[in-house]
Request: fold
Amino acid sequence: MTLEKQKNSIKNTENGFVRGALSLTVAVIIVKIISYIYKVPLSHVLGDGGMGYFNSAYTVFTFFYMLCSGGIPRAVSIVIAEMNATSMPSERKRALGYIMSFFAVVGLCAALVLLFSAGLISKAIGNSGATLSMLCIAPSLLFVALSGVARGYLTGVSNMIPVAFSQVIEGVVKFVFGMLLALLGVRLGFDLPAISAMTISGVTLGALASSIYLLFYTKTKKTSENTEQNFQKIGAKNIIKRTVKLAAPITLSSAIMGMAGLIDLGFVMQRLADVGYTELEAGALYGNFTTLVVPMLNLVMALVTPLTTAALPMFATCYSLKDTESLNKKAEDLIGLCLFLTIPSAIGISLFSEEVLSMLFKPESAKIAAPLLVLLAPSFVFLPLLTMINTILEATSHTKAPLISMSVGAVVKGIVSYILVGTDNFGIAGAPIGTSISYGISFLISFILMMYLSDVGLSVFKGFIGPALIGGASVGCAKLLYNALIFRINSSLLLIICITLAVLMYFVISSIFAKLKKKRWYLRSKSTKMT
Reply:
């Protein structure tokens, strides 16, 4: 490939990154809003006990989801991006067919395993009432695998608008049918395990609707304007081998992250029982943690996940073309953006934990969850950074490195959670502590491996001080204002005002410092040229 074509290829992925990141961000925001609209009334319908059944089944599903889909979209995206970078666009459609057939079998097998093992798993985690919910969500694994291949293909050709639209479809269908079925179960007088199962069926219907749309789109639409033909043929065996080689370690890394949730699920229930809680009480505490606390971390990840998804083909293209300079620059910019978004979020959630939760959930549930959210706040920085660095490692074909860091983190999480949850002094608080420690350790390991294995040489921490100081000042001022006016203005309205002011203050001060830094660099550069 000529130098001009290489530049055009990188430029196309850059343009695709911007469009893709924006479209995915909008979609994720819509889905998260739907999710919160969904979970708030659902928590009232099911209560902490019913949410315990729902979240237990969903946590087990997440583990299987990671096994059958965690690495598929990313691996397919890398393979397709590599084919684009090496002038093989004519082979993309054929590659899609081979990969789709292979992973359809993988998804079907995962669904069957969960169907036949649901009873054993629910007994093993000490929450037997979740069996029916697991049975109802199991079929979605087939649809998830098919959607994963289609999303990876579309991401690889930098056409992420249909990917974003499919996520909205899935969220809307899950919300509408989940709530309708939950209310129907209550109206018919079913018990909590049955209502939970009916509710979680909305997840399966959402996955089905999303997969139908994506399969129809990839079948009927052209996903790239690149019409260059190349008659180099690669067989099904080579395509699948390359995809599986990439997908296997990425999937295992994702599965380990899902296993971290299973560690919480198993250890929290069992260790709380060891210190005197009944199964119903332990399930209620776990339901409170997973319904009120964990989604806050997922909300922050919603800002970062579109960036990593859109950046993956861009990193892979730069690496395939051996453009180390572009790879370094893009990696440094995106890690800096992660820090810019996540550090003030962690500070803000630490200072306003109970206020934010009380605005969304029952005050009594929010009061229990608020200290747990503060303990989880460090994860708001560690997990996004870990995800971005692992994306860089995956795009540069070092897919085993994230597996190492995630494995160590999962082991640490298991040890810390087991010890702390089973003590009277910590109890349920051991779960967020173990999560934060494990993500911190995984981040450090991935960062070290990235610096050692890849051509990316950058200082992650050079962008840490600014967001920390400016974010701390902005959120601190907002907290002082909130405390001063809490007895004069409605608490929810005041909270929205204070958070808005903190965000504006953060962006304004950051923009001023960025302009001053740019001006200082320009003057220094001009002075150097004059001398």
